[in-house]
Amino acid sequence: GFKCGIVGLPNVGKSTLFNALTETAAAQAANYPFCTIEPNVGEVAVPDPRLEKLAAIAKSGQIIPTRLTFVDIAGLVRGASKGEGLGNQFLANIREVDAIAHVVRCFEDSDITHVEGKIAPLADIETIETELMLADLDSLEKRVDNLTKKAKGNDKDAKEQLDLVNRTLVLLREGKPARLVERKAEEERAFGMLGLLSSKPVLYVCNVEEGSAATGNSFSQAVQEQAAKEGAVAVVISAKIESEIATISREERADFLETLGLEEAGLDRLIRAGYTLLDLITYFTVGPKEARAWTIYRGTKAPGAAGVIHTDFEKGFIRAETIAYDDYVALGGEAGARDAGKLRLEGKEYVVADGDVMHFRFNT
Ligand code: GDP
C-alpha cells in the first residue's frame, strides 16, 4: 500500500494529529477486517461514498475500503543528518515512505515550547528540508567515487548514473531539493533507486488553533503561498479538533463540524490532498461477497492494477471486464451494464480510469 510519513519539528502536533487520525479511522473501520494499528503505524480507510453505493447495488456482504498508511516519524531536529536526535533512525524511516506529510506549527501557545524559540513556519520548513538535503548530499557524495571508477571502465550504466548523480549534487549544493532535478523519463527508475529524501513529494499540514480551522491564519497563509510557489500542496488542520472528532460518533460529527464552519474532517481533507499529491486513483471490485476499493497511480495499465490485488493476477493477466462507475450505477449493476453493452473487455494496454469496476481474468 501507499505510505505517508508524518514529519515535523518537535512540539508541532505530529503525535496529536497521528493519534487523532488513527483513532478516527479505527472508530470508522470497526467493522472492517485487517485494521492493524501499531504504535507509530496506522492504516486509515479512505472515505469514498461511491463504494457504499456499489455495495448497495450488488448487495455485497462486506465493504472493504482502500487504505493509506500513515507513519509517525518522530525525532527530526536540527542536526538529524549528522546523527542528532534520532538521526539515522529517522532517515531510515523516511526512506520507506512514498510521500511526506510535513506538519508545521501555525498555532501560538506560550505553554508549549517551540524548539526554535518562536513561531515561524517558513523557517521551520527550511530547517527540516535542510536536514533532508544534507542527508541526500551525504549519501550521493559517498556514491560518486565508486561510480567514477566504474564509468572510467566504460560501464555505460555507471556513466549515466554518474551524470544523474552529479546533476543532483549541483542542485543540492544550491540548497534545492532533489525532486527539482530535471530528468528524462528513462532516468526515472535510476533516480528512484537513489532513494533520496528530498525527492519525496511533500504535503504541508498547517496545524492551527481551533478558532482558525475553517479560515486559516497568517502563519498558514504564508505556508500556502510558499507551497503554491513550489507546486506543493498545503492543508489547514487543527490537530486539537481532530482529536475531539476522534471521540465522537459518526452521526454527531456532521453537526460538530458545522458549528466550526467546516465541511469535512481534516482526515478526509488530508487523505484527498495525499491522493492529489501522489496522483492516485481508485478502482473497485464488486460482488455479492464484498465490494472493495483499490488504490493505484493514475496511468496504471490493467495488468498493473490487477497486481495490486495479487501478483498472480498480473503475471497471468488475460483481460479485464470493465464497467465505468457511472454506467454501473445508472444501469443498476453488472447485469444491466452487460445488457446495455457497457461491460468492456479490456486488454493489457488499457489505462485504468478512476472509478472503474473491474473483474480480472487470468491464467494460473
Ligand atoms: P509532536 O512533538 O510534534 O508530536 O507534538 P505533540 O502532538 O506531542 O504536541 C505537543 C504539544 O502541543 C501537546 O501538548 C499538544 O497538546 C499541543 N498541541 C498540539 N496541537 C495543538 C494546537 O493546535 N493548539 C494548541 N494550543 N496546542 C496544541
UniProtKB/TrEMBL annotation:
Tell me the cofactors it needs: Mg(2+)
| Coiled-coil region | 130-157
Q: Which SUPFAM superfamilies match?
A: P-loop containing nucleoside triphosphate hydrolases (SSF52540), TGS-like (SSF81271)
- Residues reported in the UniProt entry to bind ATP: 11-16
**Is Nucleus set as a keyword in this record?**
no
Among the GO molecular function terms of this UniProt record, one is: ATP hydrolysis activity
TGS domain location:
279-362
Q: Which InterPro entries match?
A: ATPase_YchF/OLA1 (IPR004396), Beta-grasp_dom_sf (IPR012675), G_OBG (IPR031167), GTP-bd (IPR006073), P-loop_NTPase (IPR027417), TGS (IPR004095), TGS-like (IPR012676), TGS-like_dom_sf (IPR023192)
Q: Name one Pfam family in it.
A: MMR_HSR1
Recorded superkingdom: Bacteria
Q: Which Gene3D superfamilies match?
A: 3.10.20.30, P-loop containing nucleotide triphosphate hydrolases, TGS-like domain
- The chain positions of domain OBG-type G read 2-257
Give the GO cellular component terms, alphabetically: cytoplasm
Q: Which UniProt keywords apply?
A: ATP-binding, Coiled coil, Magnesium, Metal-binding, Nucleotide-binding
Q: Which family does it belong to?
A: Belongs to the TRAFAC class OBG-HflX-like GTPase superfamily. OBG GTPase family. YchF/OLA1 subfamily.
- Provide the function of this protein: ATPase that binds to both the 70S ribosome and the 50S ribosomal subunit in a nucleotide-independent manner.
Tell me which NCBIfam families the record gives. Answer: redox-regulated ATPase YchF (TIGR00092)
Q: What is this protein called?
A: Ribosome-binding ATPase YchF
Native organism:
Bradyrhizobium cajani
| Gene this protein is translated from | ychF
